[in-house]
């Protein structure tokens, strides 16, 4: 593949583009996913391509939420599979969550390709292909889930999720952890825990916090969750964008 020198000032963004491109070539990422990537990249630039302290606090609250959950499920789409396959499998393992492929534009081919891709990166079981469940309030295939996966989940991690689906999941009483770079998007605004950060940084960061909290008693997990304020996290990200920190190197 294309080698990107690690000291390039835009290393992370070039790596992201390259992975998404490869994802499209492999049939796991949609053309719509390319557009979503462009939008995300713009927000990441405005945020300074770094994890804000507020996003780190959100990642810790997400880890505590997942560890305290009865049945957490990590929803995987074409961008997530292309960008962070190993990291996603690892987080699911550490917090004992199910992995479920869930696509905005559902096709059998892409569902299978993503499930295969996750298995190649170490996933034992991948849900989503059964599609025998339904999130109420969404048109046809948009609401299709596995009954014993997202259908039965109390907590769902939904990175880069569409606003309608995020709202429908919340209405179905799911506690949502949303990873999204746009603090103004409906999906993070719907989430109990909005992580305004790049999935590339956010997923391994949640895993690190989960490892740190692995032996914490339930009361400590509850305190981490209760201390987190989703509105304050969204506001902090908006402020960072408005105050324009941009990338540290000025590029
Ligand atoms: P809605 O109003 O329904 O939320 P939207 O305009 O946000 O719609 P999309 O463009 O499909 O719809 O959403 C893609 C979202 O994913 C954007 O908010 C974008 O910031 C985010 N995104 C894209 N790439 C990444 C990434 N690598 N990490 C985190 N978020 C990302
Ligand atoms: Mg959105």
TrEMBL record:
Spans through the membrane: none
Entry superkingdom: Archaea
GO molecular function: acid-amino acid ligase activity; ATP binding
Keywords, ordered alphabetically: ATP-binding, Coenzyme A biosynthesis, Ligase, Nucleotide-binding
Reaction catalysis annotation: (R)-4-phosphopantoate + beta-alanine + ATP = (R)-4'-phosphopantothenate + AMP + diphosphate + H(+)
Similarity remark: Belongs to the archaeal phosphopantothenate synthetase family.
Cited function: Catalyzes the condensation of (R)-4-phosphopantoate and beta-alanine to 4'-phosphopantothenate in the CoA biosynthesis pathway.
Protein name as catalogued: 4-phosphopantoate--beta-alanine ligase
Source organism (scientific name): Halorubrum aquaticum
Taxon lineage: Archaea, Methanobacteriati, Methanobacteriota, Stenosarchaea group, Halobacteria
